[in-house]
């Protein structure tokens, strides 16, 4: 079934058990979009991403991938549609980087998990795209934080999903690593038509690179292009504190002096 | 989607490496088994061993020694070694802990306790129960061991999500000592009935399996191996942790149950028939990983089975060399090889990075 909406939230309520963290969210994403989810610590970013990825059930409403509803989708089928990369550092005694990326093909293999020629090609391609070829044969646990994150992204790429969900994956990277990673994911989304949903604390970078932003502010979800959200003053509302204010003109955060933004 | 040119050769060097490794291990197992069948207090030339294996009707003294003593013993060593090696791979993957195995985490001790309580229960129940136990010794002791192993395994899985890898190892070893204490006390009170079953039990022994019992041992282990094979693919995804496993479509709860069942089937009959065999399950997965240069479970299982069988047969071979004085204990030989390996793992190995 052909549809122009890649991902949609319809009256989605997320949370744990009886406790709703975010209620009645609605949003729509075009295919091949690079989306950043922004919000302060504890605003529910991770819970939202986990629910979108089908790793925890929605309390109400639904998440749709094209025409398919994610909630009732069997786990094996979901794994062919959605790839996940998390902030938590995967630790895997004895696995090589190659093993880790090969796991991205697991949802597509038979009961033995044997890789086909096609799988091997996708794995090699993923290594190349993510710039991780150099350490393919090394032990995953021996790699640096940045290298490991690259391998995890290569694994998600090898999975060839319709939707890639990445939760604060740049947290352990230096500035250059963060720019490279986000620029790669944006390019990957545009070139392959994969929808990429990424949460980040890197506001300025996200605002420069995102096609659209999901902004969590005061328990609500505001959706728009970065420019749109900035113009509506929402970024400032979400992140301004006593000490820091967002400068719409410069698209960056600045220290307040005497209780007001230095630059206006 | 971008289009890709598919390369013609799908086979990475790893497959060749794995094939050569398994072939070499397989040949080594055959050679060790033949040596073990041929050499001992009585020497039987290899030619006669092979002839005796092919012709089951021969009744020369050496043919009887071969058929009634050595074949069951070597056969048991092969099965037990393979079972413990595979169980070690399952445990290490399930707990994501490179020093996990059925012995070190107290599963074998649980099995021992199960057997001890079965015997004690029969002794207290009266002569009829004891008579029943004697007739169906293999089955009832295996069931007793299975219950004990399963209880210990569930406890270890529960604990494994709360403490670190090395802490779990220490707790497991302490658990083993505790259970050995309890077993001694139980055996003390049923010494007459239990004496036969428990004599030299803590030392481990491949020689006490009767030819008639061997099919039970091998049969249960075989079912365990098949179950382990079924776990191989989903266990790979668990190596990255529970959330990633879930995101790759793995039903983590079902996988735990299945892998646990496989472990019980592999370990319980071995414990019931041979006592607690130490170190094999702990070090063999590392040998398999070193050969395969990967931690993929599907590649490791056959290598671990072969390496486990090899180690068991070799240790048993050393035990049964024609020593002048007495004979060595199996677990003493295994400790001489195994303990330094474990120490090296704990102190130097990169797989322990972040777990020390």
Fold and architecture overview:
- The complex is a heterodimer of chains A (264) and B (356).
- Chain A has 264 residues and is α/β, with parallel strands linked by helices.
- Helices cover 32% and strands 27% of the residues of chain A.
- Chain A has a 6-stranded mixed sheet, with helices on both faces.
- With 356 residues, chain B is mainly alpha-helical.
- Chain B has helices at 13-38, 46-54, 61-94, 107-125, 127-135, 137-160, 165-189, 191-198, 214-238, 242-247, 252-274, 280-292, 297-319, 330-348.
- In chain B, α1 (13-38) packs across α2 (46-54) and α4 (107-125) runs parallel beside α7 (165-189).
- The interface between A and B is large, with 49 and 41 residues.
> What is the subunit arrangement here?
heterodimer
According to DSSP, the number of beta strands of chain A is 13
The proportion of residues forming helix of chain A, as a percent range, comes to: 25-40%
Q: Strands of the largest sheet of chain A, in order across it? A: 6-7-8-3-9-10
Q: What structural class do you assign from the helix and strand content of chain B?
A: mainly alpha
Summed over residues and divided by their number, the pLDDT of chain A gives a mean of 89
Number of strands of chain B: 0
Helical coverage of chain B, percent range? over 70%
Overall mean confidence score, pLDDT of chain B: 87
| Ends distance of chain B | 44 Å
Described by the principal axes of the CA atoms, the overall outline of chain B is globular
Number of helices of chain A: 9
For the record, give the distance between the C-alpha atoms at the N and C termini of chain A, rounded to a whole number: 50 Å
**Poorly predicted segments of chain B:** 1-11
């Amino acid at each position: 079934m052909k549809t122009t909406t890649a991902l949609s939230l319809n009256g989605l309520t997320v949370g744990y058990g009886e406790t709703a963290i975010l209620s009645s969210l609605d949003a729509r994403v075009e295919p091949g979009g690079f989306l950043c989810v922004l919000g302060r610590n504890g605003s529910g970013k991770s819970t939202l991403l986990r629910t979108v990825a089908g790793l925890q059930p929605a309390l109400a409403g639904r998440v749709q991938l094209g025409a398919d509803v994610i909630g009732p989708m069997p786990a094996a089928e979901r794994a062919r549609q959605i790839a996940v990369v998390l902030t938590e550092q995967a630790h895997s005694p004895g696995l090589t980087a190659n093993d880790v990326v090969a796991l991205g093909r697991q949802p597509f293999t038979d009961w033995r998990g044997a890789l086909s020629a096609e799988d091997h090609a996708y794995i090699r391609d993923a290594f190349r795209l993510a710039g991780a070829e150099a350490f393919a044969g090394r032990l995953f646990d021996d790699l640096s934080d940045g290298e490991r994150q690259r391998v995890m992204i290569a694994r998600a790429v090898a999975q060839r999903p319709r939707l890639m969900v990445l939760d604060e994956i740049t947290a352990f990277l230096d500035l250059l690593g963060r720019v490279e990673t986000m620029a790669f994911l944006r390019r990957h989304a545009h070139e392959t038509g994969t929808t990429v949903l990424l949460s980040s604390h890197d506001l300025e970078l996200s605002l420069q690179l995102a096609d659209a932003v999901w902004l969590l502010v005061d328990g609500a979800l505001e959706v728009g292009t970065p420019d749109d959200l900035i113009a509506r003053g929402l970024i400032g509302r979400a992140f301004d504190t006593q000490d820091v204010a967002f400068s719409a003109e410069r698209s960056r955060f600045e220290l307040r002096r005497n209780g007001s933004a230095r630059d206006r | 989607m971008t289009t890709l040119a598919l390369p013609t050769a799908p086979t990475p060097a790893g497959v060749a490496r794995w094939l050569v490794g398994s072939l070499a291990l397989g040949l080594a197992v055959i050679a060790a088994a033949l040596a073990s069948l041929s050499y001992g207090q009585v020497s039987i030339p290899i030619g006669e061993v092979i002839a005796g294996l092919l012709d089951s009707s021969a009744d020369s003294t050496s043919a009887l020694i071969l058929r009634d003593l050595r074949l069951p013993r070597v056969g048991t060593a092969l099965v037990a070694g393979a079972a413990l090696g595979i169980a070690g791979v399952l445990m290490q993957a399930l707990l994501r802990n490179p020093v996990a195995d059925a012995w070190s985490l107290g599963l074998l001790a649980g099995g021992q306790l199960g057997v001890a309580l079965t015997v004690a229960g029969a002794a207290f129940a009266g002569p009829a129960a004891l008579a029943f136990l004697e007739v169906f010794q293999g089955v009832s002791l295996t069931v007793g061991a299975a219950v004990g192993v399963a209880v210990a395994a569930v406890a270890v899985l529960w604990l494994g999500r709360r403490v670190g890898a090395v802490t779990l190892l220490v707790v497991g070893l302490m658990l083993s000592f505790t259970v050995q204490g309890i077993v001694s006390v139980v055996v003390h009170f049923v010494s007459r009935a239990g004496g036969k079953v428990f004599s030299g039990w803590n030392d481990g022994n491949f020689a006490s399996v009767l030819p008639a019992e061997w099919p039970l041992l091998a049969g249960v282990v075989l079912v365990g191996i098949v179950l382990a094979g079924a776990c191989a693919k989903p266990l790979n995804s668990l190596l990255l942790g529970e959330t990633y496993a879930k995101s790759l479509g793995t039903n983590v709860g079902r996988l735990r149950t299945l892998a646990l069942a496989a472990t019980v089937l592999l370990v319980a009959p071995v414990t019931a028939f041979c006592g607690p065999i130490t170190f094999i399950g702990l070090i063999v997965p590392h040998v398999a990983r070193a050969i395969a240069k990967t931690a993929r479970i599907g590649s490791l299982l056959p290598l671990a089975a072969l390496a486990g069988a090899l180690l068991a047969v070799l240790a048993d071979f050393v035990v049964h060399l024609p020593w002048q004085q007495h004979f060595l204990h199996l677990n003493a030989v295994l400790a001489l090889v195994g303990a330094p390996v474990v120490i090296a793992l704990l102190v130097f190995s990169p797989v322990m990075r972040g777990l020390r």
